[in-house]
Model the fold of this input.
Amino acid sequence: MSDKPQTSEKMQELINLAAELDDLSHINALMGWDQQVYMPRGGSEERGTQSALIGRLMHEKLTSEKVGKLLADLEAEVGDLNADTDEARAVKVFKKAYEKQTKVPWPLLMEFIKVTTGAHEAWVEARTKSDFSIFQPYLQKIVDLRIEYAKLFQPYDHIYDALLDDYEPGMKTADVKKIFDELRPQQVELLKAIAEKEPPDNSFIKTHYKTEYQELLGRYVITRFGFDWNRGRLDLTAHPFTTEFGQGDVRITTRYLDDDGGSALFSTMHEAGHAMYGQGIAAKYNRHPLSGAASLAIHESQSRLWENLVGRSKEFWSFFYPSVQMLFPEILGNVSMNDFYRGINKVEPSMIRVEADEATYNMHIMLRLEIEMGLMEGGMQVADLPEIWNSKMQEYLGITPKNDAEGVLQDVHWSGGMIGYFPTYALGNLASVQLWDKLLEENPNVHDEIAQGKFDTILGWMREHIHQYGAKYEPQELMLRATGSKITPEPYINYLKTKYGEIYDL
Amino acid sequence: MSDKPQTSEKMQELINLAAELDDLSHINALMGWDQQVYMPRGGSEERGTQSALIGRLMHEKLTSEKVGKLLADLEAEVGDLNADTDEARAVKVFKKAYEKQTKVPWPLLMEFIKVTTGAHEAWVEARTKSDFSIFQPYLQKIVDLRIEYAKLFQPYDHIYDALLDDYEPGMKTADVKKIFDELRPQQVELLKAIAEKEPPDNSFIKTHYKTEYQELLGRYVITRFGFDWNRGRLDLTAHPFTTEFGQGDVRITTRYLDDDGGSALFSTMHEAGHAMYGQGIAAKYNRHPLSGAASLAIHESQSRLWENLVGRSKEFWSFFYPSVQMLFPEILGNVSMNDFYRGINKVEPSMIRVEADEATYNMHIMLRLEIEMGLMEGGMQVADLPEIWNSKMQEYLGITPKNDAEGVLQDVHWSGGMIGYFPTYALGNLASVQLWDKLLEENPNVHDEIAQGKFDTILGWMREHIHQYGAKYEPQELMLRATGSKITPEPYINYLKTKYGEIYDL
Done:
């Protein structure tokens, strides 16, 4: 009990409210985790009602009139919401969430949840049968509802802005377009140059690796990275993900493929990157309006950094390759370190983002953004998507899906209503290299440290410049503070050119 | 949409409220399960606040004035709450929960939660150090709070009634005393007779059994019993338990001991008995005021039935023993079925209920009841408990704990404030045999069926006479309906005498 209270009564009220919302959101996250990891199928119906109940409680808590009044009082109390204090930022972030949520009529939210629930089942069936017509009416409804949602936020520069903002606070469609327009020709040119060269062999990766040793290796690598096992777990699911139930409990999942010895390892490093971000947010933001991450792109910058800039680097493998050869002598005993390194960095156009190498990855994102913008603007029709998809795949990657399951139905995002999400994947790639360059500029020995299996400089730098701030800064402001610039494509393009220039002798 | 609605608007309102309370309670159960099975230790603080939040939401929902009004309206609408309709019973059961909950001031509830949280930690430390003085002040506070709680329910026949009623609805302390008074001398006499005989050898059980095969066996046995894996799971915890998140998701846990090959198997059968009860409640009671079980004793009757009446029977082992010999030939290859059967039914006074055989088990309960009644009545003092405990152990079981960890500090119940809980363990034993006798009377072939590995008559009978009713009937009424009599000790005593008479040649 200090006689100089640091936190006003109203601010404490806001923090308490945020704490309850965090608790509810983490409870929902636990239910989602359990559903994907351990729940028997008989549990799904009631898990649905339980999760909907928590969602409704959160909505009620966030949108009550009392909250509006509290925020207005706090604005008056705090003054400039862009000021660099936790209080100002807490009010700003919470107010934004409140205003977005109160703009959306409850029936529209309910319909969206109902439609996406049905759409998920339809998408599963459509993909299994490779029949877009099963999914088409659901996707049509989703697009209609997303347009209705976006229009609630008029006036805007672009109808896609509101969707993008849900995942990437403060980012505008025009910003993304400008970045992608600069990126596309250079990336296309690089891919063309690579395509003219002899590809490295990666057949030793595309085979069965003993699962038990894959797990041993994955756990060893992320332990060295700094993943905190006292505050996290690793479990198995069909699709790897990261989730958190508080700063003290951040969990990742992976899966071991029968015909690919690299997939689980890179995916584990990726998810550990996400998880270490969650584990690294300042303790003072626990159960607080600023408890979240800055954005999905910033989150993705962390996962891609550990997966690619660290995990696919020469230095990383100079340290870990002997251990890997020990575990898998039949497969790798006669594969040199250099051949291994070139193999895991082979560039090869693929049908789906999750299988893409670093050089082709962003092409999948740009394709998706163009289609999503077309749907939202009205220039593209849902019925034409299979054709549009296939022709863009040919244009961007030089390959054509053999059916809709491999093409327009390939992933889950649209069935969940996630339009506006994809650009964050590419922005995350760009941000990862931008952060990496700054880290190297300040710590020129990092490559040597990696070669010695040391990662604390990297994690410490990310903790200091990114993780600790939680949701205090919007992504562009955070990047500006950390690197001196908003998200920009040059570092990424330079990185790709240098890396693949060497591997492919360009 | 029928034009003859079966459910009135108000009844539907009650059902919706019960559904939300069930959802919240199941959410809390999931958090508890995860905490014991998978949660990293860093998650515990926030899990505590999350769980407390759900508890508060439940309390608010249950005790709101609206609920009182709704129940009053429904009572008028439904009439006789003892009538045999679901509606009447739903109102009765819900009203009882409402009245109990509203009688307890929120600060008292909060203090109880706070004290038991601290008490648990103190108990862990006290037991580790075998030092009762560490736990004593907490236990004193718990006893004081339980007395304060019980007195809220004045007038009563006995101060212990209100505590007992929380676990065993409608059961009175006087009923339990009467049953135990009848039971005690007969059970003591039986134990005396057994003590004079040569004990069977059970050393082949008290050794290491390969964990992997123990799990294989446990899963095989309960699958044959009828445990539904589409609506359940088996995981590992330090202390086995059953929990449910809905009728479609009922989970059990077990643990494999290094020096006892029987413990996990019997515990798995026990928990499966609980779980099959949860899986067997009528679907119409899902998310409904009658969704629960009749009582803890009825629950325990199911677990003890599968563990003991089935799982420790000759017929059970005549079917399963060959499989067990196959899995563990080094240990059991030269142990005859009869020696095995006698070994797993060896009677031996033990320090703690969970390790007790069928013949000594109830003695632990009677000891505990006497102490709990003494504490509540005021005739016993917390400070004297170590001495009282030890002298009663000597009196009832002929053994004396070598320290308080083995004695008065042996289990978790009191630290959690669970006074009034223990009698249900013994009542469950009695009920299990009473149900068993009735089942055999109606199905004389059940023993033969067990010897053939068939258990559907047993599970079917329990489904029909016990499981399906959920919380519709109070335990004594349910037993009366199922067996023609309230809970009574004779069948149990006869069972013990017959079984051990044969094993010990009395």
In short: Chain A has a mean pLDDT of 96. Residues 211-348+431-473 of chain A form one domain.
